[in-house]
Amino acid sequence: MRLFLDALKALADLNRLRILLALRDRPLCVCQIVALLELAPSTVSKHLAILDQAGFIQAQKEGRWIFYRRTGRKGPVEVRWLTALVDRLASACPQAVKDRKRLAKLLQTQREVLCSRYYSPKARTVSSS
To answer: pLDDT tens digit string along 111-124?
Structure first.
């Protein structure tokens, strides 16, 4: 029961739900998630850590990129059940529909370009472009 409650707590935030839905079809790097949510990289990292600790996602380093993906069938049954529920409810959520369209556009942008917007050595804050 404790695992179920922890999983529910992890989903009790709109941005974490948005991240989970964004990872539905493919893994994404942190820069892509930052661009989608339009939040500071540190804020996105905190959300990713909470989802990771709850068992919803996992990180995988590929070269200089860190990709996040859903745990899928590897996750605890409670997490799988809640993920399926979130997926089913997503079509009724205007924000999820908006994010899906925005993500499709973002995926056409090279990761190097996205990362330079958010992680350039001169930038201290997230770019608004």
So the answer is: 777 776 666 555 44
